[in-house]
Structures are given as structure tokens and as C-alpha cells.
Amino acid sequence: MAGSPGALVTKGGLVFVSGGGRVLYAIDSKTGKTLWEYDLGQQAYANPMTYRTRGGKQFIAIATGSGATSKLVVFALK
Fold first, then answer.
1. More confident of the two residues 2 and 11
2. pTM
3. Closest Cα partner for 35 from 75, 72, 3?
4. Whole-angstrom Cα distance, residue 21 to residue 70?
5. What is the CA radius of gyration of the chain?
6. How far is it, in rounded angstroms, from Cα 36 to Cα 16?
7. Is beta strand 34-39 parallel, antiparallel or unpaired with respect to 49-52?
8. Per residue in 3-51, pLDDT tens?
């Protein structure tokens, strides 16, 4: 998809990307293998984001939908 949103790469070598579609993928940066995928239920035309709590827990977040259907979907990393 031309102009699709970018990916997020973690220090541990995971690449998170939606490509502007409905599915968020976690890909191993060394092998290119898809390790995990999740159907977000609506378009995710946004770059994934990450944040870490003071306690050290890391999260991946991505905005989905538009207008009244907008959501921020968040996943915790183990």
C-alpha cells in the first residue's frame, strides 16, 4: 500500500507493523518470521507506539479507526 504507516522495532528485535490494514503483526527482525498477529477489528492506519511503566513493563499501542470509531488498542509485552 503506497504511503502505508511505518513499523516499530523494539530493542529485543521485534518488528510491529500493520501496513495500514486490520492486522497488527509481530515479526522477528532476524528471520522475518511472523511470531504473532492480532485482528484489530478495523483499519490501523497509524504507526505502532511503545511505552514502559516505572515498574518496567512494556506496552505496544496502535490507533485504529477514524472519527467516532477511533480506538487506541494496547498490548503488554512479557
1. 11
2. 0.89
3. 75
4. 14
5. 12
6. 9
7. unpaired
8. 689 999 999 999 999 988 999 999 999 999 999 999 999 999 899 999 9
Residue 2: pLDDT band with limits 50, 70, 90: low
Q: Residue 54 carries which side chain, given as an amino acid letter?
A: R
HSE-up (13 A, CA, CB side) for residue 22: 4
| Distance, CA of 3 to CA of 45 (rounded, Å) | 10
CB 32 within 8 A of CB 41: no
Asked if 57 and 76 count as a contact pair (C-beta separation under 8 A), the reply is yes
User: Using CA atoms, how far apart are residues 17 and 53, in angstroms rounded to an integer?
Assistant: 22
C-alpha cell at 48: 505502532
| Inter-CA distances, 33 with 15, 29, 65, Å | 10, 8, 27
Q: Give the number of residues written for the chain.
A: 78
DSSP string, 55-75: T--EEEEEEES-GGG-EEEEE
